[in-house]
Amino acid sequence: QEKWLPWPNEPLIFSSDIPKEIETLPKYIPESVIDQLKEKLVNCPDYFQRLIVILLETGRRIGEICSLPFSCIEQDKDGDWFLRIIDKKIKRNYLIPISPECLASIQQQQIEVKNSCEELPYLFPARNKIKSQHITARNVNEALNKLAQRQKIKDSNGNILTQGDSIILIK
Predict the structure, then answer these.
(1) How large is the angle between the packed helices 100-116 and 46-58, nearest 10 degrees?
(2) b/e string for 44-54 if b means 16 or more Cβ within 10 A?
(3) Are residues 129 and 117 in contact, defined by beta-carbon separation less than 8 angstroms?
(4) pLDDT on residue 4
(5) What predicted TM-score, i.e. pTM, was given to this entire model?
(6) pLDDT recorded at residue 81
């Protein structure tokens, strides 16, 4: 800037010299793995089964489902039920229509939370009894991966998922 050093007027590094970022494509869970997961869910605690039902039905991120507020469902004037999602990234709330099965899972989870302790702000509170926290995406991922290994859930090639594999990859 002050031209104290003999510096060339042309740039030394061009944008074409910088390597492009590698875009990673999302890894989708094969339908065969999802089917096995649904079949093996009976080996999990009830709250975890309900969380997975909501997760699979809505297609939302694990973190969004884990942090659902206790009162997260609404019914419209026609009697249809919706799940209220709070998208923290874009700071917006919206409603997702849900099936009777998903509604039943949410309502059963609300009953369990209500019966187990005083009012908590989350539908899936932390299992360590911290009032202000909810279970985390990491907890869910770890539990799913343990389930996959314990129940010998296989990928589309017939190989048992190993520690390095992951059923749910979206956080």
Answers:
(1) 140
(2) beebbbbbbbb
(3) yes
(4) 82
(5) 0.74
(6) 96
